[in-house]
Amino acid sequence: MTEQNKNELKKKKWPVINQKECAGCSVCVEACPMECLRIGMPKFRGDIHTTAELAKPDCCIGCGICAQNCPIRAIVMTEKNDK
With 60 as the cut, is the pLDDT of residue 1 above it? Predict the structure, then answer.
């Protein structure tokens, strides 16, 4: 892998889902071209709040389509912090 490719991987954007704001509507899940997202399970028995989660981080290409399609802007793309 060349140095340029390594730098591109370090700059890759990553979806960060605000769990408090996410309504679990699954719009982002349907929009993701790589099928990286899923709606997670409730946190405890009796909880009705489900949220989106990055289920397959290795498959994520950092395209930002999930963030663009989120109707309540609960997903933001941030720089990946791998070094």
Answer: no
| pLDDT band, residue 80 (cuts 50/70/90) | confident
Question: Going from the N-terminus, what domains does the chain have, and what CATH number goes with each?
Answer: 13-78 (3.30.70.20)
Tokens of 1: 């892998």
Q: Which of 64, 77, 5, 73 is nearest to 34 (CA)?
A: 64
What is the spatial distance between Cα 32 and Cα 21, in angstroms, rounded to a whole number?
Answer: 19
CA 74, 28, 34, 51 torsion-angle sign: positive
Length of the chain (residues)? 83
